[in-house]
């Protein structure tokens, strides 16, 4: 069994940002020389998410406004008694999930034609990271 | 390490459909001769989901009406500027997640007594596929 | 390849309860003597969830009230024609997802500083279980 672990760091300019990280994950997988296996892509913070969907700017706007509807930013969270103001970012992270697994087949990410991997930052403007761990043979 | 990769194709008659795929995944796992490992079941399209829940038709109706409430079909998505009309299907896919991992123990899917694996089609009536990848020993 | 499979049983006092299970998963991983790999933590019931987030009681209150807003308990579920009264618990399970994968790096759970693993019981007061399966080398 072969495994490789790398950490991707991001410090977004906006508080909320979507970043297509497919190429960076692909590069890690190529470098791992794993032909058959799986790669886990997982946010290491509880106010960020990772999901697979479409590289289409209109859809990104839809996703943001949808997340604001279902898990709105606001002053009313009990979590804010700690001094934080990011209660909504925790709920958004739970909603979109913080991780995906992508199969590795014949040395490549085995994604469908429109599937791209996104890092969803819900409380950025500081250094945060993801773990990318590939396992296989 | 042993691994097996298979693709399941579906072309649903309805635009939205739930399909219990547990038996097909079980067959792939049996054929793989993996005794201990994990199997990833992952939609390869961004307008479909995979989840584990109950084989109970009343519940399926509840799931559909709930998904329509939280991620309604409608004309107002920015994504529709591309000519598509399936914005809701993308959001539903993110909501239910597009993949599950099932442990393989003693050669079988290690599911609880009521756990069944479902493919959730949100924009069907065309050929679409899932990847099923098992890894283990 | 090395693998270990253990089952964690819980019988909550309340119908709905959040339990931090990070230490129990860490103990299983230590005992497995896996240095590099992944551990799957997955509810075996369809009315429970597993997620990673913050150990902060104010946030837990936010999560509960948010889940009640998005997937409210109520009498109106079609699933209740079977005699059950836990329709909301199924939807909550789908919403938060029933599983997470945690990377194992240098023999430890490779979590971010605030990441903790929670079992979310949505229909407890009876014996229910999770599967914890670690794989690696």
From TrEMBL, chains A, B, C:
Gene3D superfamilies reported in the protein's UniProt record: YjbQ-like (2.60.120.460)
SUPFAM superfamilies: YjbQ-like
InterPro entries in the record: UPF0047_YjbQ-like, YjbQ-like_sf
Name used for this protein in its record: YjbQ family protein
Species for this entry: Polyangium fumosum
């Amino acid at each position: 069994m072969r495994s490789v672990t790398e950490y991707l760091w991001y410090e977004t300019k906006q508080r909320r940002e979507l970043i297509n990280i497919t190429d960076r994950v692909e590069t890690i997988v190529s470098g791992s020389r794993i032909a058959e296996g799986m790669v886990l892509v997982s946010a290491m913070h509880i106010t960020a998410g990772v999901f697979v969907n479409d590289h289409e700017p209109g859809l990104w706007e839809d996703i943001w406004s949808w997340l604001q509807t279902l898990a709105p930013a606001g002053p009313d969270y009990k979590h804010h008694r700690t001094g934080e103001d990011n209660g909504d970012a925790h709920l958004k992270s739970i909603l979109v999930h913080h991780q995906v697994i992508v199969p590795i087949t014949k040395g490549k990410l085995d994604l469908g034609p429109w599937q791209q991997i996104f890092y969803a930052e819900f409380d950025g403007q500081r250094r945060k990271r993801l773990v990318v761990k590939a396992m296989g043979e």
